[in-house]
Design goal:
It is a single chain. By secondary structure, the chain is α+β, with helices and mostly antiparallel strands. It is built from four helices and eight strands; from the N terminus they run E-E-E-H-H-E-E-H-E-E-H-E. It has helices at about 30-45, 50-70, 110-120, 140-145, and strands spanning about 1-5, 10, 20-25, 75-80, 85-90, 120-125, 130-140, 155-160. Strands 1-2-3-4-5-7-6-8 form an eight-stranded mixed beta sheet. A hairpin with a 6-residue loop joins strand 2 (about 10) and strand 3. The longest helix is centred in the middle third of the chain and has 18 residues, at about 50-70. The radius of gyration is 16 Å and the shape is globular. The N and C termini lie far apart (about 50 Å).
Length: about 170
């Protein structure tokens, strides 16, 4: 079943099955706030409130990166299947995100650390027309059973086709 709302589209089951919703980001004006509201609305609607705050922060970071490093349009896609949720931000740049070296005087570059810490897993999937940066959330008892990396973080850096930890870093 399809449902069109403002700037989002719902595709998939409205019952107990998985739901996919998408938000097209045509320009930078208010895009991060729209993305956060979109995530909050759909996480609440589908009983994923436990992860809603973290998901809003992650959406803001991923959408900000898409706006800063690629040309519009971008697309925020949520695949909701409680107790799990997957967030994807598709953009036109083929360049994967770069994890900057830690710095005490840098004004930017901490967003990917938030994404890594607040998600169960995240990574990058290259596309012919750009890339998808994705993040996954696991709630409740499924989250307790989720693997943690050696540092205790819930997230791992994974670029499809590469081993975790093989992601590029800033020189």
């Amino acid at each position: 079943m399809k449902e069109t709302a403002d700037v989002s589209q719902t595709v998939g089951s409205r019952g107990n099955g998985p739901v996919e919703v998408a938000l097209t980001i045509d320009d930078a004006s208010g895009a991060v706030a729209k993305a956060r509201r979109f995530v909050a609305q759909h996480f609440a609607r589908h009983g994923l409130m436990e992860a809603a705050d973290d998901a809003q922060l992650v959406a803001g970071e991923l959408v900000t990166n898409a706006i800063l490093h690629a040309r519009p349009p971008a697309e925020l896609v949520l695949r909701l299947s409680p107790p799990r949720a997957r967030m994807e931000v598709r953009d036109s740049s083929p360049v994967p995100p770069v994890r900057p070296r830690p710095s005490t005087d840098g004004m930017t570059g901490r967003g990917l650390f938030f994404v890594e810490t607040l998600t169960h897993a995240w990574g990058v999937t290259p596309l012919d027309s750009g890339k998808v940066v994705w993040a996954e959330f696991v709630l409740g008892s499924d989250a307790d059973a989720a693997e943690r990396d050696a540092s205790g973080h819930r997230g791992t850096w994974k670029t499809d086709g590469q081993e975790p930890g093989a992601a590029p870093t800033e020189n």
